[in-house]
Design a protein that fits this description.
There is one protein chain. By secondary structure, this protein is α/β, with parallel strands linked by helices. Helices cover 27% and strands 27% of the residues. It has 7 helices and 11 strands. The strands form 2 sheets. Strands 3, 4, 5, 6, 7, 8, 9, 10 and 11 form a 9-stranded mixed β-sheet that branches. A hairpin with a 6-residue loop joins strand 8 and strand 9. Helix 5 runs parallel beside helix 6. The two termini are 34 Å apart.
Amino acid sequence: MPVNVKLADGYEIIQSERFFKLTQDSVLLSSFAYISSDERGLDLGAGIGCLGILMMLRDAGTIDGIEIEPGAAELAEENYARCGMAGRGRIVVGDFRSMPSEMAQRYDMCVANPPYYSPRHGQIAAQPSLATARPSLHGDISELCRAAARALKSGGRFYLCYKPSALDELMQALHSNFLAVKRLRLVHQNPKKRANLVLLEARRDRSCELTVMPPLFINDEFGYHTNEYKQIYGIDT
């Protein structure tokens, strides 16, 4: 059954059990990435449109999405319309590995929140529409980076989140597709826990000096949400 989820400033999106829902990872990634008013972005594996909507609610740019699952793409279009974004981006039904030629080298930035595990690691989702979203079934991390490099203009930015334990695999995929890492930030549940997420910005066809940002902590040492985390979520501090 579809469920309404409230976003900032009274906006709402619709979620369904059939498709991946809005996650903390998408919220954190949307706060890490940026798009200028004169730029066009692409959400690779857009799902129900959460990531693009979160970014466009904050920034003034335009974000398209490409999504392989028709039902999720239809819901993304509906969510764009519900949030007043229908005129600021379009949702394309398709596989990012074989995106239309008119999408090549068109975008100033790409963004992606990919599932992290392949069929070799963990259990495949029982729901067919969720299993379809697995990158190992329809594009692994190398193919995702290849799609970003194809879609981006020279110098364009690629933002994504990933598991720190697979950072070496991600770095290799970026490097092999001429994407140089520009910024990196590790996310920790609290100061005593090891990082459980990495936020990363890479540039196409650019030699970059890597900036490692201070870590982002979800909770402080007493178990309370940090002020930065609350600011990202729009919670009164």
